[in-house]
Structure formats: C-alpha cells, structure tokens
Amino acid sequence: MRLLDEKRELLYVIRTFDVLMSSGVGLEAAIHTIGQGGYGIISEDFAGLMKRLRKGSGGGLDKQLKHLMKSAESPGYKRLLNTLYTNVTQNTDLVETLKKQGTRMEEERSEAVEKYIEELGGVPETLLSIGMIGPIILSIIGLVPQLMSGDLGSFMSLPDPAVISGVVNMGLIMTLVAMFFIGLKAHTKDPGL
Amino acid sequence: MIFGLIESFNDTPLLLFLLILGLGFAGGGIPPMRERARRRTIENELPSFLEALSDSVGAGRGLQEAMMEQSTANDGPLAKLLGETLKESHASSFEASLASFAAKSRSSQVQRVMVLLETAIQQDSSLRDILSDLSMDYERLNDLMNRRESELQGRGILIILFVSVGLPVLIAFIVGLFAPASQGYQITAFNNTFALFFAAASAIGVGVSGRMMGRLKDVLWWLPMWMALSMGLYLGAVKLVGG
Lengths: 193, 243
Prior knowledge:
Number of strands of chain A: 0
Largest sheet of chain B: none
Number of domains of chain A: 2
Structural class of chain A: mainly alpha
Structural class of chain B: mainly alpha
Helix content of chain B: over 70%
Distance between the termini of chain A: 14 Å
Strand content of chain A: under 5%
Largest sheet of chain A: none
Oligomer: heterodimer
Shape of chain A: elongated
Shape of chain B: elongated
Number of strands of chain B: 0
C-alpha cells in the first residue's frame, strides 16, 4: 500500500520542490511546506521528519533524510531522498536534478501504464478460463451421484455422495481462491495514476 | 408463473437479503458515478485552461484577471465553477477563493494545481512558466488516465458479463437438462452450493473489473446487486429448465 501511495504522489512532490526551490525557497522550508499536507504518505514522512528536527532528536537534516531512505519503498522516492541528502552534504544543483528526475519519473509512469494495460490484457482470459472451466467440470462431478443412481450405478462403484460433495465444495473454494489471486494482479501492478 | 418463480426463492434467504441490500445500495452507487463523470470532465478541461491562463499571464495580465476572463470566455463545468467561485468571493481574498474553488471541484488534480499556484504567488515565482509546465503535465496525465480507462473498460465489462451472467446461466442449463428436479432428482443442496459460489465469483469478478478501471470504491456499491443477480439467474434458470 505504501509503495502505491509513494508512486502516486512522487511526481507532484518533485514538481512542488521544483517550483519552490526555483523561486528561492530553502530545502528545509520546502520540506516543511510539503509536510503540511496534500501529498499523502510523503507529506506524513516529511511532517514526521520536521517534528524530529524541531525536537532535536536523531541528528540533523542529513541524518533524518538517511533515516527516511530506509523506510521508502519505491525506487523513485529513494532516488529523490538521496538527491536531497546529496544536496545537504555536497551543495549540488538541486533544481536541475529535480527537473531531470521529474522528466524521468514521467517517462517511467507512461511506461508503467502501458505495461499495466499489456499485463492486464491476459487477466480476463485467465480469469474466465479458471472461473468457467472449473465450475463446469465440478458441476458435472457433483451431478454424477444423481445421474448414476439408477441402472447405471450397477456398472461401476461410485464413492460416497458425501465424498463427492466434499470434493466439489473444495474445488469451488479453490476456484474462488485462484480467481482472487489472478484478479489481485490488477491491484498489485497498479501504476498509481 | 412469475409470482411462482419469485415465491420459489423463499428457500434462499441470502438471495432475498442481497436483493434488498442491492436495491438500497444502488441508491448510493449512482451519485459516485455522476460525481466521477463531472470530476473527469473538469480534469480533462484543466490542461487547456492552464495553457490559456499561461498565455494571459504572459501577455501581462494578473492571475486573478486572467482567471476571470477565462471563466467568462469558456463554457463547461470548470469555467462555470470558477466563475461562480470568483463571483461569490468578492468579500474574501483571492487565495481564499482559490482554496474554495479547489474544494468545490472535488478533484485532486485541481486541488494540487491550486496549492502549487498559491505557493508560487507567495514566493513570487514566474507564473507563466509554472502554468505552462502544469498544463503539459496534466495533459499527459489525463491522456494516460483516459487511455487506461478506454482500453480496460471492455475487458472489465467482459469479466462481469461472463462471470456474473454467462456462467450461472450456462451451468443452470447443464443442471436443468441433465438432472431436472421435475423428474425427481435431489439437487437442492447442490443448487445452494452453486448459488453461493456464483455470488462469491460474481463479487470477485466485479471487484477485479472495478480495480482494473481504477474505480473499486464506486463499484463496491453495486456488488450486492450483481451477487443477487448471479444467484437469481442461476436458481431461476435451473427452475425454468428443470421444472
């Protein structure tokens, strides 16, 4: 969940940093502005960072950024925090780097959406194959004790109807679980638009 | 015959419960759909609106003046909403009217743009460049969102139709033809099991379809209705075919 939130907000955070720092706002003030809200999980992270800085616990801004890098999950967010950390320790051209990162993030987002659409192309077919073939076979298995109850039953011995019913129930549950996991792809691969 | 069919569902209280729940929830499902359509219209208008603002600001107009002009020059929900907000907020500050406009739009895109503009005004940044950049950013974002929706909508509908409608009817025909209740086959327990399965499969199918299109929360309102439809179709078709 955190990964998805980071992906969703990151580009806007980079753009805000870009606007703020291009107009002469300092890094700490920019982090404070973003920490005030509007950028989901990243706002929460920055608010926590500012709180710790004000308390004076856990060292300066560089150490706090380093600490935040450990909890970041998306590569883009880690990259942004690393850029901010480098700026604090080495006085780099942050605005230029942020512009490049923004462009790169946007390209990555477009690629991620295309990949998502491509990957989900197979989901309906797989879902329908499992979700339709499974129940059709299981329904026939479930009807066997009824269909073979007459003269046909003397030709071959059938398991107890309770056993067949158990097999059908288990099969249906397994089908539902399989459908759920196939469908889960739609959630886990979400590009976070 | 219809009343007889409906009466026969009395043995499945879950179906009746889901049907009642579905009818009630449908009332809650329509407003998010309408709201989403309105919000997406506003968001799709946003890039061209920002571009026009950038041009006006570049020509020497103030942001407030440029917004006023654009709200009167254009029609559509975005210009209408902005015009109304600017008119209403004569007594308050321009920043307050921007915040009010962002809140009324109920769009995260508009809210982000307004927060950024407010910050840019406070910091005396070059509004022309910012507006132009934002316009391009949001145009690309909306293109991606529209593409995702148009490409995945068909697949989402396919899943719902097959899992919630096609599958129950198909299996009901198999059961009704090969083991009709009218000929003494004892299939009540079998039918109850499969009706429950179709309700659950329908819930998964509808959930997956909603998630694919990025509107899971909106679709959840319709979940009981689809579950009830799926169960009802199966049990109804079994009774119609098998007696």
